[in-house]
Each structure stands twice: as structure tokens, then as C-alpha cells.
Amino acid sequence: MENQTQIFGIRAIIEAIKSGETIDKVFLQKGLHGELFNELESLLNKNAINKSYVPVEKLNRLTKGNHQGAVAQIAPIAFYNIEDLVLNVVESGKTPLFLLLDQINDVRNFGAIIRTAECTGVNGIIIQKKGAAPVNGDTIKTSAGAIFKVPICKVDHIKDAVFYMQASGITVIAATEKTNKTLYQVTFKNPCALIMGSEERGINPSILKVVDEKAKLPLLGEIESLNVSVACGAFLYEALRQRLEV
């Protein structure tokens, strides 16, 4: 698998998208207009590609070339199809353990979560196309290379992934403080998918309404929450502990 590369220039990015290149994120210059720029924006929206509007100075730091107001990051991995991944895991005879990340946008947290997921036997990670942390050099470094070992899927909406998991016989468990039940009172021994939410907003309320179980970490200190990658590690290792029980 090659390291992340960049494409710069509006026309070049348009052609890359049309040719099916795996674009992870596009940085667009604030305040830029024009017919070609509008065409690029339309393509990004149509294909649900993550984009961010930034000052020209940011683009100048990203590349030394003539970026024309647009720089795209090509993902260093190929993303899996969620239907194929779930089917393959179920048919393999393994007890599925999936991880759904609801708009966790910090690349270091994302990388740390991937690393823990690989160590605890997670079969795949599902992220949303919009609002998720990009798969870039920082993600690779923080994951210690685990990103190349754990299948990652991108979906239009996390709720769609929840419904697909449930239809496949997989229990969906949300890590949230909005419950009286702790993670030690929930079973992870059966096929399950764990949802972690962003540190700023947690799990989207509309998603919490459709999950099968909710569980929280007991916190004895005055601080009301843990870093999301630390909390995810606690949940995944509880799942592993239960699955290792004879």
C-alpha cells in the first residue's frame, strides 16, 4: 500500500474523481469562485467527498505547486464495502465485532482507536463520509501501521450502518453516558457493533434512538468524560475479556 499522495489543481482533481480515484479529503480556498471551481464543488457534493474551506496560506503549505485553490488528499488505503465486509465476517464463522465511529474528526484519536481495534480483534471500522477524520500521514503514524490491517468502510450515514448491522443479526451497542447501565452489565460475547461518538457532541441523538443497547463507563472523578480513544479502549478490552472467558 502506498503512502498518501496529493493532487493539486482544480481540473486535475475533477478528472481524478471522475476516474474513480479514492479521494479522502479536498482543501478548497476560501472565497474562490468560477465555473470550474463550481464544477468541482458539485462533484464533491455528489460523491460525498470530505471538503474543507481554508485560507490560501494553508494550501501553500500543503504543496509547492500551482494549486489553483484546490488540493486533494488521496487515501493510502482502499475502503471496503460494508455489505461485503459484514458478509465475509459472518460467513467466516467468527463472532463479529465491529466499530462504528460517529464523526470522530481528530486524526490522532482516530489513529489511536484503529491501533486498539487491531489489538482487540475488531473485524472492521465504519466511518461516515462527511465529518470523519481523514486517513492521512498522522493517522498512519498514530495507528502504528494498524490502519493497513483493519478493514475500514465509509458510509453516507452511520445510521444506515446501524440498520444494516441489525438486519445482519448484529447487536448495536452505543457508548454513551445517557444510560444507567455500565459496560460491565452488557454482553459483548454475541455478534455486536460498538458505536463511539465525537468528543464534542457524543453520538447523534437520532442514532441513540435506534441502537439495541447503551452502556457507559463508571467515572469516579470530577471530570465527566474520558478522551474518546481511551474510552474506546476500555470498551474494546471489556469485549475482549468477555470473549476470552471459558
- How does the overall form come out from the CA principal axes? elongated
- Structural class by helix and strand composition: alpha/beta
Instruction: Write the CATH homologous superfamily of the largest domain.
Output: SPOUT methyltransferase, trefoil knot domain
Low-pLDDT residue spans: none
What kind of sheet is the major sheet? Answer: 6 strands, parallel
CATH level-3 fold name of the largest domain: Alpha/beta knot
Strand order in the largest sheet: 7-6-5-9-8-10
The CATH class label of the largest domain is Alpha Beta
What is the first-to-last residue Cα distance? Answer: 38 Å
Q: Can you count the helices?
A: 9
Quaternary structure: single chain
- What percentage of amino acids are in beta strands? 15-25%
Q: Rg to the nearest angstrom?
A: 19 Å
Order of helices and strands: EHEHEHEHEHEHEHEEHEH
